[in-house]
Amino acid sequence: MPKVKLDEKNIRHCRCPQCPVQKNSACSAQKLADMKATANPETLPRENVPVVYCSVGKATCSDLDSQQACMCPTCLVWDEHDLQSMYYCTRGSADKIK
Ligand code: SF4
Ligand code: SF4
Question: pLDDT tens across 34-66, in order?
Fold first, then answer.
C-alpha cells in the first residue's frame, strides 16, 4: 500500500474526528483541540496528531473503542489512495499493514 502523506488536504478530508471509535476518547478530544489551535498541524509530532492514522500510524491514546465502526471507507483519502484496510488507529499506518 502507498504511503499516505500527512498534509493539510488529507487532514481536512480525514473522517477520524467524526469517528465513533474515538468520539468518546478524552485523550483524542484534547489532542484534536490542541491541533485545531495550531497553525500547521502537519508539523506537529506524529504522536500529537489524532487524525490521518493511515499516515501517522497507531494512536497514542489508549481510550479508543475499537468495538465501534471505523469510518475509513467513507473517506476521500481512502478512495484516492485505493486503501483496502481499516482501523489504522489501532493497527498501524497503511504502508505497514495489509
Ligand atoms: S482510523 Fe478508522 S477507526 Fe480509527 S479513528 Fe480513523 S476512521 Fe475511526
Ligand atoms: S482513510 Fe481513515 S485514517 Fe486515513 S484519512 Fe481517511 S478516515 Fe483518516
Answer: 999 999 999 999 999 999 999 999 999 999 999
Whole-structure pTM over 0.85, yes or no? yes
pLDDT digits (tens, 9 = 90+) for 8-21: 999 999 999 999 99
CA distance 6 to 67: 26
How far is ligand 2, taken at its centre, from the CA of residue 57, in Å?
A: 11
Q: In ligand 1, which atom is closest to the CA atom of 59? A: 4
What are the residue boundaries of the structural domains of the chain, listed by start? Answer: 8-91
| DSSP assignment string, 13-58 | H--GGG-HHHHT-HHHHHHHHHHHT-S-GGGS-GGG--S-HHHH-S
* Closest listed ligand to the CA of 80: 2
